[in-house]
Fold this sequence. Notes:
Blueprint: H1 29-39
Amino acid sequence: MPKKQHSSNFSPHLFWDVPKEKVDLKKHPQFIIKRVLEYGLMND
């Protein structure tokens, strides 16, 4: 079974305006990619 990825793997400041449990990598990939590109650190 594939390991599930969580938003907690990213820097906390990326999702300051949404609850962590609402960030779904499969449902909102464009939102997450945009945040990482705009505000992410090298480790994100």
